[in-house]
């Protein structure tokens, strides 16, 4: 069973539907039941709201401990705020996060968003950007390097340990958009909204043994 | 490679069907929304916008089911708007499978809606839809109620206001150009794009592929939205992107 963690914060349908699409034989549950999360063989932590509400939602849901347990051993996929939550804290709020991975979540600075051609980039970083696979990983299997994924965010992770970065995108400077450590893989973009490349990444997750 | 400029086909919806009119009136049926969305996805659309132009109770009920059906089969971002007036409306649309919700008239009546919505759901899923009509040289006024009611509010000032309130994107429609197929109002688009820090989607008036190029290059838009040129099979999304690529614009393959 694959559990999509439902802590009461909006659209989980897209993630669940995309997982069902790539793994029709797998049981995919959207759940707010800690026992069900503990029983799941793999866990997906989505998130696309504002960080203060998201962390409050997770704590209120009583699912915090079950999520942290899953992070310790089972194949785990974090998406968007589900990636950001893994770090120590976020500038959005600011908000203390799960502190499973050392590092911070930072807002894009307007002063840094000018391209060499003097084009002014906008916040949020919204749309399809090319993702550089900086480290090979089973979840990148079959996805050409440089494939575009859909992003919609104003904040991005800055890991204290650069070795956990496995993917970057440019806006205009490179930033970490995919991280991996042991059984954990997490992405800033939305694989469930990234058409072919995104569905392939989800398919890879469904069959991943959690080793890296 | 960096962030691609987006091509967004827009489906105007009334009672669960795709329609297209000229200057917001004289509606014609243009097809089944789910079939149309699937075709656009296959052609390489970067996102699909749905606008419930009826926004009646009956039409809204049909809209939720339609969004669910589309979201089950199409794995690209979906933006939905039309008659969105409460946080409950936003939640219902996000739960149905929308990734972004656009707010128009209700944002004029209650400007705190943008802040409340973005604080709860995140700025990245809140789109401010602005229907603007020229009222003087280089001046545009915001109209609401599907383009039937003038507000007296300056479109540029309103764009800055909604961005400051927390809207994560602006969907800017020129009412003068909508359905007229003479190209975007490039002065309006440029004025808004330069005034705000959030992405701007240019809308209203596309009649040819070069209009899309102009919206990005001259209008400064981050994304271009069009309806009729795609609905009636005149151009594919792929042809639109090819034209943009030739013009040196970065697009998703």
Task: Give a structural overview.
The complex is a heterodimer of chains A (212) and B (253). Chain A is globular. Chain A has helices at residues 13-22, 34-39, 51-61, 64-73, 81-84, 195-207; strands spanning 2-5, 28-31, 42-45, 76-79, 89-90, 95-96, 103-107, 125-130, 132-133, 148-153, 155-159, 165-170, 174-181, 184-187. The longest helix of chain A has 13 residues, at 195-207. Chain A is α/β, with parallel strands linked by helices and 212 residues long. In chain A, strand 5 (89-90) and strand 6 (95-96) form a beta hairpin. In chain A, 52% of the residues are buried. Chain A starts with a strand and ends in a 5-residue tail after the last helix. Chain A has six helices and 14 strands. In chain B, 38% of the residues lie in helices and 28% in strands. The chains are: A alpha/beta (212), B alpha/beta (253). The interface between A and B is large, with 42 and 42 residues.
Helix/strand layout:
The complex is a heterodimer of chains A (212) and B (253).
Chain A: E1 2-5, H1 13-22, E2 28-31, H2 34-39, E3 42-45, H3 51-61, H4 64-73, E4 76-79, H5 81-84, E5 89-90, E6 95-96, E7 103-107, E8 125-130, E9 132-133, E10 148-153, E11 155-159, E12 165-170, E13 174-181, E14 184-187, H6 195-207
Parallel strand pairs in A: 1-2, 1-3, 3-4, 4-14, 5-7
Antiparallel strand pairs in A: 5-6, 7-11, 8-10, 9-12, 12-13, 13-14
Chain B: E1 6-14, E2 17-22, E3 25-31, H1 33-43, E4 48-52, H2 57-73, E5 78-81, H3 87-96, E6 100-103, H4 105-109, H5 112-121, E7 126-136, E8 139-144, E9 149-154, H6 155-165, E10 169-174, H7 186-195, E11 200-203, H8 209-217, E12 223-226, H9 228-231, H10 237-246
Parallel strand pairs in B: 1-4, 1-12, 4-5, 5-6, 6-7, 7-10, 10-11, 11-12
Antiparallel strand pairs in B: 1-2, 2-3, 7-8, 8-9
Helix pairs in contact in B: 1-2, 6-7, 8-10
């Amino acid at each position: 069973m694959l559990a999509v963690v439902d802590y009461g914060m909006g659209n989980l349908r897209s993630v669940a539907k995309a997982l069902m699409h790539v793994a029709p034989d797998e049981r995919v549950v959207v759940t707010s039941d800690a026992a069900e999360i503990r029983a799941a063989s793999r866990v997906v932590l989505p998130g696309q709201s504002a960080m203060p509400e998201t962390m409050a939602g997770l704590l209120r849901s009583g699912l915090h401990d079950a999520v942290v347990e899953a992070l310790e051993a089972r194949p785990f996929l974090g998406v968007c705020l589900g990636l950001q939550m893994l770090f120590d804290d976020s500038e959005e709020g600011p908000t203390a996060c799960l502190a499973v991975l050392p590092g911070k979540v930072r807002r894009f600075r307007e002063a840094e968003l000018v391209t060499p051609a003097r084009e002014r980039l906008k916040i949020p970083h919204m749309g399809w950007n090319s993702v550089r696979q900086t480290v090979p990983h089973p979840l990148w299997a079959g996805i050409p390097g440089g494939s575009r994924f859909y992003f919609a965010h104003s904040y991005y992770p800055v890991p204290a340990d650069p070795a956990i970065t496995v993917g970057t995108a440019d806006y205009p400077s490179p930033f970490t958009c995919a991280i991996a450590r042991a059984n954990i893989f997490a992405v800033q973009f939305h694989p469930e909204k990234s058409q072919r490349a995104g569905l392939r990444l989800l398919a890879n997750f469904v069959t991943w043994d959690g080793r890296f | 490679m960096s962030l691609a400029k987006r091509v967004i086909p827009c489906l105007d919806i009334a009672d669960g069907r795709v329609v297209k009119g000229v200057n917001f009136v004289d509606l014609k049926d243009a097809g089944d929304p789910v079939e149309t969305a699937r075709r656009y996805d296959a052609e390489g659309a970067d996102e699909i916008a749905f606008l419930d132009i009826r926004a009646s109770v009956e039409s809204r009920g049909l809209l939720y089911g339609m969004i669910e059906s589309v979201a089950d089969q199409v794995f690209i971002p979906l933006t939905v708007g039309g008659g969105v007036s409460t946080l409950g409306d936003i939640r219902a649309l996000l739960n149905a499978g929308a990734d972004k919700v656009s707010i128009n008239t209700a944002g004029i009546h209650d400007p705190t809606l943008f802040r409340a919505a973005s604080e709860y759901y995140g700025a990245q899923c809140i789109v401010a839809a602005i229907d603007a009509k020229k009222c003087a040289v280089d001046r545009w006024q915001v109209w609401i109620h599907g383009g039937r009611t003038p507000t007296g509010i300056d479109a540029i000032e309103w764009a800055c206001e909604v961005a400051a309130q927390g809207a994560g994107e602006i969907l800017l429609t020129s009412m003068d150009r909508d359905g007229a197929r003479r190209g975007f109002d490039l002065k309006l688009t440029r004025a808004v794009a330069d005034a705000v820090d959030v992405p701007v989607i240019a809308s209203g008036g596309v009649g040819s592929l070069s209009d899309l190029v102009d919206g990005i290059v001259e209008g400064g838009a981050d994304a271009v939205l069009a309806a009729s040129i795609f609905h009636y099979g005149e151009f594919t999304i792929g042809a639109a992107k090819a034209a943009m690529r030739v013009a040196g614009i970065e697009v998703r393959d």
